[in-house]
Amino acid sequence: MSVRGRCAKVLPSELNKVCPERGDDPATHPRKMSDFEVVPNLQQSSSSVSKSRRKAHFPTGSNEKENLISWIPENIRKKECTYFVESSQTSDSGRIVCECGYLREQHLDDGAKPPIFLGKEWDPSRHIQEMPTDAFGDIRFTGLGQKTGKYVRVSSDTPPRVIYHLMTQHWGLDAPNLLISVTGGAKNFIMKPRLKNIFRQGLVKVAQTTGAWIITGGSHAGVMKQVGEAVRDFILSCSHKEGEIVTIGIATWGTVYNRESLVCPMGGFPAEYVLDEENQGSLSCLDSNHSHFILVDDGTHGRYGVEIPLRTKLEKFISEQTKVKGGVAIKIPIVCVVLEGGPGTLDTIYNAITNGTPCVIVEGSGRVADVIAQVANLPVSKITIALIQQKLSVLFHDTYELFTEGKLVEWTKKIQDIVRSRQLLTIFREGKYGQQDVDVAILQALFKASRNQDHFGRENWDHQLKLAVAWNRVDIARSEIFTDDHDWKPTDLHPVMAAALISNKPEFVKLFLEQGVRLKDFVTWDTLVYLYDNLAPSCLFHSKLQKVLLEEREHTAGSKMPRLQLHHVSQVLRELLGCSTQPLYPKPKHTERPRLSIPVPHIKLNVQGSSLRSLYKRSAGRVTFTMDPVRDLLIWAVVQNRRELAEIIWAQSQDCMAAALACSKILKELAKEEEDTDTTDDMLALAEQFEHKAIGVFTDCYRKDEERAQKLLTRVSEAWGKTTCLQLALEAKNMNFVSHGGVQAFLTKVWWGKLCVDNGLWRVITCMLFFPLLYTNLITFSREKRLQPMGCLTRLRAFFTAPVVIFLMNILSYFTFLLLFAYVLMVDFQPTPSWREYLIYFWLFSLVCEETRQLLYDPDGLGLVKMASLYIKDFWNKLDICAILVFIAGLTCRLIPSTLYPGRIILSLAFIIFCLRLMHIFTVSKTLGPKIIIVKRMMKDVFFFLFLLAVWVVSFGVAKQAILIHNEERVEWLFRGVVYHSYLTIFGQIPSYIDGVNFNIDQCSPNGTDPYKPKCPETNADNKKPIFPEWLTVILLCLYLLFTNILLLNLLIAMFNYTFQQVQEHTDQIWKFQRHDLIEEYHGRPPAPPPLILLNHLQLLVRRGLLRRPATHHKLKEKLEKNEEAALLSWEMFLKENYLQHQQCQEKENTEQMIRDIAQRVDVLAELLDLDRVKRTGVVEQRLGSLEDQVHQSAQALRWMMQALRGNGFSSGEDLPAVGSSRALDFKEADLEGKAEERRPPYHVLARNLLYPGSHTLRFPVPDEKVPWEVDFPLYDPPAYSADHKDMAVQDPFSLSLESLLKINYNTMDGLIDRQSFHGLYAVRDGLPLNPMGRTGLRGRGRLHCFGPNHALHPVVTRWRRNLDGSIIRKSLKKMLEVLVAQYPLSDVWALPGGSLEPGETLPLKLKWILRREFWPQFQNLLKQGTEVHRGYLDDPRNTDNAWVETVAVSVHFDNQNDVEMKRLNSFLQGCDPELCIRWQVLDKRIPLHANHKELLHKVSTLLGAYY
């Protein structure tokens, strides 16, 4: 027997060994019993709010340790036996033990026991006490890796809410979306390898995809071991963090082997646990593959099953919690999965079915699972004691002799009740569901239970859809929810659509769009605000929004953070899209905005304190829809970098090309600020993908119609801030798009203006120099090509306003300026400026005016500051400003006589800068333009090279100067010797004196006094010969030339070559991209060249300054009419659909995709071949069963014929031969789901439920075949129960003494009590009446008031369900009814307004509760006029062998909606209790009423021919 650790026995020295991080602490000493009371309120710790750091499978941090150490002892207890009572049994080692199973030394000190414990009998309620737990923390399995789990020892009386709080708040577990309770054999059993693999893979798949918790017994044996190995195999094959599966083991502390290693009063972090199966004996080890352990302690040792009550309560508590995920609030569903198992497993299944928990039975796993699976398809009437006995003899052949006759009866009754609830029972058959489909069976079981659950209206459909969304199982939603059984309105899907968007479930978004959800109806102003309110906190866009809100709060000097509005979103978007776009969401003028009024289903959506459902329940006629809902959703998805969502939404967009380019721009801007490199790469990849989409759509458009495609480039998009596709592409630097042939053709068209693009350049230059040639056919115009004649002035204006002509004239003007400037500098630079020099000044003034015009030209209203920043960003503008400023500086010096020469020098430098400006002019050339780009890139390499070169030049120069020359004090010669000479040495100008051979004393100054000669090197004072070490200077020179001439210069060449190779691949794209800037510049430039451009400036000044006319938009924008724009967008959307279809076809034709498809088909084929044996076996069994059935029928017919012949005297006197076998068929393959609903059972069912309602009394199990009193049942020994109703004036005695029973008169009126039955005379045995419907398993009167019949009245008040216009609503061609129902206090279900009749009363008390007293007589008249639909026995759970309920059900139907009596009834309905609810409810078979009341409703609907 293992030694049980006790807190009181742990010495400080031992404590240091167990808990090395804690020393001698007073908290480790025993407390008084009074200190061990459970704290009523949970002590909240700081860990309960730190949701962001929840990591369930990571080592516990120091703060978490402190929280656990302080919180767990205050809220969680263990149990200790405090009094030793010697047991008749001994331990495994033969030692004397207590009744609790522990040794004497494992108990607390006898001296501490109060006198109240003295006695001879051991009583757990008195001798077992609770005290703070001493085992909790992290558990690590020695020798099985570094993985750690969580564990805690808890009392068996611990409230489930405390354990749930521990798991979710302190262990860091997220609330589950599904609870999978796996039960079955606790001992190792053998499963077929194929079935084992199917179960493991399916269980792990459903847990991983739905975010479920798996709860098992936690030991390393049986089904728990199977679950642990399944989780282990999955974790080993999955490297990412999403592979973590929460597997919770709930075991009995007293049966855990090596549990003393877990005892640590201050917590084990970690506690080392050894898994030792060889020496565990009758105990069991914990399974190392579980992640969490809850060890239930009742103070005993070696007793299994202690954890079952707490596990049941915990599972029920968790299933009652609401999980909010992705905006959807769901009750956490629970499902029970059964493998193999024994008697305890049968009880677990029965309790689960009784509580409404769906169960999945894995057929083929053995024992109990196979017993239930093999009889699940049979009618309940055929599940007999003999059949169950036969099954048990086969499946429990080793332990069959332990089954007593009473046990067989109990098993038969429980299995009948389990099979009777077919909607909660799912049988997983290997050949039926196929490989790896256990997950589908589990989820289908939940949906089947939900569909068959009672509900009002469409609540269960909503519940199923919420489950599917929470689990992210779109396959289940397609197959189980969106079927022909229910018609979904698009508006019903709006809340779950929002939930799918928030939780990033693109497959569901796609499904809802397929089901008819229109984004135009879904996306409203408030919906967008709601979506942006629920951005992921880790999203970069979320942090940018928070900054905007903080700035607004600081600006308004408010203390409260302003509420997020769409104009805040627009502010951030404008930063990302660029200031060339207008705000997408203008700031509202009023604080109050119109609200939404879209009806939605009964679905609760809570995220961050707001409810989406409330958005759709506002006043009618006040909905505010956005301009472009697809755009809004697309932006919302893109800013969160949600690729799949963005692709799905983009496919719905109308202005798709602009949308793709805008998304590319947003993503590239966000990628610049994103800190996470993986996220940055994803953003850039998605941006490139959107660029390719835009290129693909534009390519299809350009092939179809070039002119309309080019209109798409310049069309002003209202939805995207009044910008154009071309502008968005330029802002995003989408070079691939801009370099597209169609875009370049458009730019060429713009470049040539109204001239035809096929005009030769020499023709244009000729006509520019000799403009009368324009009136010849030398130049062709686009209008003339379209056969439209042009006048003389029109031709002249069209020619000289073409950008290409303006460009050529500006080139001619610029060259003239440079030639004149050079002439003045070299030939005509006089002290007094000549007329040529004045002409240069005038020319420069025109250039300054043009630059000023470019700076102030603001057609989009961006403002002077923004225009200035955009102007400065351009490199060529910077060069222009530099040239003008240098020229002005030189001009200023030139006009001052004393600085005439410096002025000429500065003007010469300005001339150099003006010449460099020519490179920008030549960028338009397809030949020179790319080369200029390469030169610009190589300039960056030169700067990096100069840094390396400077290191060698300076190092060699300083060393050389220090070796050769002593104390050179002249700075200019010092600079020459260190830098200048060293630099020239690279190019071959080696100093003559460096080696001493060519030294000449006349070429230097010995003392450094000659300003025109360098100082001589170190020389001999006698013969004036150099004395410096020539060998050293030569070596340094050689090394210097080696590294600089060979290494560094070749490095520079290599850098140039790399840059050239790299840029050359994209030079064409870069040139095409930058070509736009030059074309746009000359497209909006005044036609006259400088200096004549001053005339255009003067004209512009008059128009804008004096006439106040608006600026003319010269940018490449075109505002289309609404009809034309709508037609163009429809055409674009049509071609986008073609593009997407073409992409899908290409993906299918892709080699890799074809290989994947072929591989998938091969897998399916292999699976079918693998299942062929199973299916053939099933077919053979089916055929054999059919043949056996036919033989059995033939044998019965022959037996009847032989008996008939014998009865007529044809007998030979010999015994009849045995013909056939009367054995019932055992195996019949049938589909459980497709089976028709069984007819009404012949015997009462509710009256035989094992647990009697309102008590802890268990009925004696009565199978169906033993219900009639005529059937002999020797084992029948029911318990007796009669409740004492202290509030009732009239009730029969609750004792079964014969003296008190003889006073009752049965089958007649007994005073005011009517003891006559509607079924005639009933039998009376031993002074007690017998239930006319048979045995119930309980004697006495139970909770009923009287022995014998207890009469009741149930009025069924109905009316037709009508539309607003008064017409009757029909379903399946039948009229629909509404029935009056009530929910009474302390009841969870609804009921008909009726109940038991008090002696002498004509109306039930419950009916009087809902009617005003003055209406009672009128209602009695309505009952007399009604139709009686039932009179007799009512199958009620309160019925017993000696007391039962008999009722009269009367149908009161109001056929006319204007019926006066119905209106009076509605007006007299009242609730005497505020908790009493009354309502008219649509009548169908799923209405949540008592089962026996639903039978009455069925009769009423049949009577009226209504839908049910």
Topology:
Elements: H1 12-18, H2 62-75, E1 77-81, E2 86-90, E3 96-98, H3 124-127, E4 128-132, E5 136-141, E6 148-155, H4 160-170, E7 178-184, H5 193-210, E8 212-216, H6 222-237, E9 246-252, E10 268-273, E11 292-297, H7 307-319, E12 322-325, E13 328-331, E14 334-339, H8 343-354, E15 359-362, H9 367-375, H10 385-395, H11 405-420, E16 425-428, H12 430-433, H13 438-451, H14 459-471, H15 474-481, H16 494-502, H17 506-514, H18 519-522, H19 525-533, H20 540-556, H21 566-577, E17 606-607, E18 610-611, H22 612-615, H23 629-638, H24 643-650, H25 656-673, H26 677-704, H27 706-714, H28 725-731, H29 735-738, H30 741-752, H31 761-769, H32 782-785, H33 792-800, H34 803-826, H35 835-856, H36 864-873, H37 875-895, H38 900-916, H39 918-922, H40 928-964, H41 971-986, H42 1030-1083, H43 1093-1106, H44 1122-1149, H45 1151-1207, E19 1280-1282, H46 1298-1301, E20 1309-1310, E21 1313-1314, E22 1324-1325, E23 1328-1329, E24 1339-1342, E25 1348-1360, E26 1370-1371, E27 1374-1375, E28 1377-1383, E29 1395-1396, H47 1405-1410, H48 1416-1425, E30 1427-1434, E31 1443-1454, H49 1460-1468, ...
Parallel strand pairs: 5-10, 6-11, 7-8, 7-14, 8-9, 9-11, 14-15, 15-16, 19-24, 25-31
Antiparallel strand pairs: 1-4, 2-3, 5-6, 12-13, 17-18, 20-21, 22-23, 25-28, 25-29, 26-27, 28-32, 30-31
Describe the protein in words.
- The protein has 1508 residues and is an alpha/beta fold.
- The protein is 46% helix and 10% strand.
- It is built from 50 helices and 32 strands.
- α23 (629-638) packs parallel to α25 (656-673), α37 packs antiparallel against α38 (900-916) and α40 (928-964) packs antiparallel against α42 (1030-1083).
- The longest helix has 57 residues, at 1151-1207.
